[in-house]
Each structure stands twice: as structure tokens, then as C-alpha cells.
Amino acid sequence: MAAGSGATMATMEEGEHVKPFTPEKAKEIIMSLQQPAVFCNMVFDWPARHWNANHLSEVLHGKQIRFRMGLKSTGTVPQFETTCNYVDATLEEFLTWNCDQSSISGPFRDYEHCKFWAYADYKYFVSLFEDKTDIFQDVKWSDFGFPGRNGQESTLWIGSLGAHTPCHLDSYGCNLVFQVQGRKRWHLFPPEDTPLLYPTRIPYEESSVFSKINVVNPDLKRFPQFQKAQRHIVTLSPGQVLFVPRHWWHYVESIDPVTVSINSWIELEEDHLARVEEAVTRTLVCALKTAEDPHNTRAWLNPTEVEEISHEVNCHYLNGAVSAFFNHYRTSNATEIQALKRNGQHMEKEELNVCNHTEAGQTHSQTFATGTVKQEAASPFGPDLVPVTQKSEEPPSERGGLSESDGQHFGKLHCAKRQKMMSNSENAIVEQVASSSFTAPSQTFISTDDLLDCLVNPQVTRMVAQLLIQGRHL
Ligand SMILES: O=C(O)CCC(=O)C(=O)O
């Protein structure tokens, strides 16, 4: 929707501006869109618009922050957090190292600026600003239709040129990313490309599935299927907000000397099952990796993870996730369940699709109703929502218009109602839980044997065997 009906007025220093979308409309778009897109002109009145690194350095005066240090020049192997070095420093020290390259003192002294980047990444506002809770109000996700959501549910990312996050997908939610300072280039791949991205859970981090591929310098001999992946690229500039739909893969790199961005992951209905999946993954990864080498977690456990990896704790965590799933659907009202069931009929058919997994990119892009197929229709949302298309052009600068080619790619299929991507099995579980005839297990009900019965179920072991055989050349 272009500025006009339903648009809201907001005041800023230079005069009055109209936001192109009301909170209700923005939320409707976010909950229905299955393609990444850039919102323009939505945050010009947010106080956080002025949070450049110099300003943050004053706000956080003297606070020690952990920076991840990586090499600017790399080969074909992704720079995972487990292989990076870390430096504890203030933002002021970071800025001195970054801007005054002759400086060889301070905590960054061992890192030549021409060879390394530094990244204060994935910093939760609540731990960063602690007692300065007023600052949370400077971020207003309520403008996107999420009342009360502010800095408290946000993370901050401050990096130097070349700082990047390896390619991964987030297991939970969808994502809104506000670019505050400098530009970042996002390489995105749709969920149906998952088999082409060679997913791995090592290093292990809850909620992140990493790709084995360095997508900016891929080893195509080792990962030939990656050539079929549908890369979408967008450069995010200050003042813009990127919407990343659920399960889209992303590699993000800082392409200016200093970058600052703020994001918030928005919870989705699908997260209830995803939490159980993550708990199973954690239990399995911890058990096998500890069996392999009981004393060396550094090689596989992401530094962001708590070190508590005992089987007992993981089982407790799994039971918590399963109970939460049951509680949620038991208390969901009938309309909600009906909607879930309807959406489930349009499931993404990725389950147990092992035999075809090398062809998945092709098969899915044909059947996936809201994939990246080019559409002829113009954008239904006007110039302030720029779709990120395959090999797309850069989005326009703030207040700029949608380019002709962008408009052609943004058809009505892309704004179809979010298909919940609920699998048949989840649909069946939801139905069972919702129906009174289903006796839900009580309290701590999943034992190690229960878990093993599922993991070594013949269907599962067949799938694992097929994956191992197909991947034996890796
Ligand atoms: O900005 C980055 O480096 C990564 C951001 C990211 O992975 C996310 O917001 O999910």
C-alpha cells in the first residue's frame, strides 16, 4: 500500500512525514509475505535512528564488550564462531582501532587492522544496557504492528568492514532488521534450498542451523549442489528495515567501515514444534559429541551457548518444550486450530524427502506457491516495500522509488497468506491434542528410551542411512 489510505502521520525535525504503512498493515504484510523485502521510510522518527557507534560509545561509556575477531581474507571454509578469536574492549577502543589505524596499543593491538575485522555481534539490549532501560523505548517495533515490542526484545550488532555472520537459518520466528549505520550486504536463500546449502549442526547453537558453505567463496567441487541455490542479494542502507521470512538462509557482511544494526525475531506459531525439534537436536548433538571426546566442547559448542550439556539437563529441556507444545495447543481456541489445520494442507513437502533431496531445489521451486518465481504484476504495496528478488538490484535509497525491474518481480503470489508450513505430522498432533479423546501425557514423560525409540525408528534410520550414503563423497 502506498502512502494514502490508512497511513499515519509522524513528526520529525525536518517536517512532517507520512509513514507508508499503518502498524496493522505492516503486520499483515509481515505475517503473509514469504519473500524478503525492505521497508523504507518506516523508522525516520525512531530515536534509535541516531545510534551510530560514536553515540553508543558515549552511552555505554567504559563498558566492556566482547568482539569476535575474524580474518578479512578467507578461503572456502566458513569462519564459524568456534574458530574466531575474541577481544574484550570498550566501544571507544574499538573505534580507535578502527579509525586510527596507526594505533598499536590497547586490547586490539595483536590484530592488524588491514588483516582483521571486529564484530560485537548478537548483543541483547538487556545485557548491554542493563540499568539504562529507558533506552529500550528508542526502538519502536510497535510501528510494525507489534505493540509493546521495543529494545527489550532486540539485539545489537556493531562491526567493522568485512565483519560477517556465516550462512545460517534461524529455527525460530521471522526477523525484522533495522540498519542504523553503514551498509550491510545480505545474501539470502529460500527454505526450499536447504538441501543445496549442506546444513550442519556443528558448531552447535540452539536456533541456528549453519551451512557448511562459505557462500561468498564456495567450494563447488565439494558442494556441487550449491550451484542450484537461488541466491537473493540486497544491500541494506541506514534507515531501512529488512524483513526476513521464517527459515530463509542468510549470510550477512558489513561493507562500510562501521556498521550498526538492530534486529528483533518475531515469534511465530510454528515455533512451538521448532522448540521440540531444537531440544531433540541438542540432546543428540551433546550426547554424541561428548561420547566422542568428553573434554573438548570448544571444538563444537558455539561460544554463545551455555556450557551445561549434561544429558539430564537436556532431557529436562526436551520435556519442557514438549509440555509447552501440548499446553499451547490444548488452550488454543477452536478457530485457531481450524486455521492451523487449513494451513497445514498447504504444507511444504520437505519431510522424509530423502530420495529426492538432490533435486529438491528444482522440485520445490515448482511446487512452492510463493517461491521466487518472477511475476508480471506490479507491487501491490507501493514504493516503500521493496522485494528482495533473486539476483535483485539494490533497494532504492530512503524516500526513493521502486525500480521497474523490482516491481515486475513482486506479484500477488508473494503476498499470499502465510502458509504455516505445518507438516502433516504436526497437523495430526495438533488435531490430537485439540481433541478431547486424546490423552496427553503428564509431567515428565519423555525418557531416554522414548527418545531413542523415535530416533532409531526404522523410518528414521533409513533416512539417515540414505543421507549418509548420498553424502559419502563429502
Ligand atoms: O547482521 C548480521 O551479521 C547477522 C544478522 C542475523 O543473522 C540475524 O539477524 O538473524
UniProtKB/TrEMBL annotation:
InterPro entries documented for this protein: Cupin_8, HSPB1-associated_protein_1, JmjC_dom
Recorded hits in PROSITE patterns, A to Z, give: JMJC
Q: What is its main location?
A: cytoplasm
Q: According to its record, what are the GO cellular component terms?
A: cytoplasm
Q: Which SUPFAM superfamilies match?
A: Clavaminate synthase-like (SSF51197)
Q: Give every JmjC domain span.
A: 117-281
Assembly and oligomerization: Interacts with CRYAB and HSPB1.
In Swiss-Prot or TrEMBL terms, this protein is called: HSPB1-associated protein 1
Q: Which organism is it from?
A: Carlito syrichta
Q: Which gene encodes it?
A: HSPBAP1
